[in-house]
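Repro:
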Amino acid sequence: MTSEGALAGSDRAGIIVAIGSEVPPGRFRVGDRVCVAVASMNHLLPRIGAFAEYVGATADITLKVPSAMSLENAVALGISVATIRYALFRSLRVPGHPEKPAIKPAYILVYGGNTPLIHPSTTRLATGMGSTQ
């Protein structure tokens, strides 16, 4: 669905040029390479969209890009990782958080995955939070 005047595009990768006051101190620095997923074509936030020269994004959906990964490859992580994170930690309530991994392992089954990115990303994210495959 489109909203007249709203920006399109959900996934973006680039370099941080400014940091907002609501970003936790030390989480990101100007110059960090990141990828994000933003809610595009949003009538409530029409100036937010990935197909723009500068993109505003919240810290919780922004990921640092490893130095070994190109920004061209990192741009594919945004919606994929956001979807996986939502499914595991919000919908299924798998315990653990990036800053506080689970103490007691939770067992999950990743069945299939319709893209080569979903399955490996899901298992890496889940095991990083203390779950086991």
